[in-house]
Amino acid sequence: MNEQRKDILDMLAEGKITAEEAERLIAALERAQPPAAASPAARPKGKAKYLRVVMEFLEDGESGRLNVRVPLQLLRAGVQLAALIPPQALQRANAELSKSGVPFDLTQLKPEHLEALVEHLDEAVVELEQSDGHLRVFCE
């Protein structure tokens, strides 16, 4: 609860304002609050539009920042385009991925699997704190 809302409720409890006045003040506070102030946890489930990766770090004594925002629709389009790739090309790509140490089978990438992944990503928040920086991965 923010401080202004608490002050309004305190004034109501002390009898300094009526319930109707408190309601009007709280409504005015909510209108004045920018939408970006809402936390990712306050967003309704299943409404994620972006995968965010935010990293702040120190390197050679200088601070740096990485802020990546990937539209989930781009991921969906990529999976649908992957369905158009001939099986021989997928086999060659899998072989190259495996040779590079990435055990990922592109033939198993299906749109229905992506939707399940997106649904689970919507609930996930990954945070890593270290002395030289921090990383946060989440959906918004």
Report on this model:
It is built from five helices and four strands; from the N terminus they run H-H-E-E-H-H-H-E-E. The protein is α+β, with helices and mostly antiparallel strands and 140 residues long. The chain has two domains: 1-33, no CATH class; 39-139, no CATH class. A four-stranded antiparallel β-sheet has the order 2-1-4-3. Helix 1 (3-13) runs antiparallel to helix 2 (19-32) and helix 3 (72-82) runs antiparallel to helix 5. InterPro entries: YvlB/LiaX_N. This is DUF2089 domain-containing protein.
Short description:
By secondary structure, this protein is an alpha+beta fold. The protein is 43% helix and 24% strand. The relative contact order is 0.14.
Strand order within the widest beta sheet: 2-1-4-3
Q: First CA to last CA: what distance? A: 21 Å
How many strand units?
Answer: 4
Average pLDDT metric: 79
Helix content percent band: 40-55%
Strand content is 15-25%
Provide the structure class. Answer: alpha+beta
**SSE pattern, N- to C-terminal:** HHEEHHHEE
**Counting H and I runs of at least 4 residues, what is the number of helices?**
5
Radius of gyration, in angstroms, nearest whole number: 23 Å
- The unreliable regions are none
- Count up the domains: 2
Major sheet description:
4 strands, antiparallel
The dominant shape is elongated
Organism: Nonomuraea turkmeniaca
Protein name: DUF2089 domain-containing protein
Domain YvlB/LiaX N-terminal: 3-30
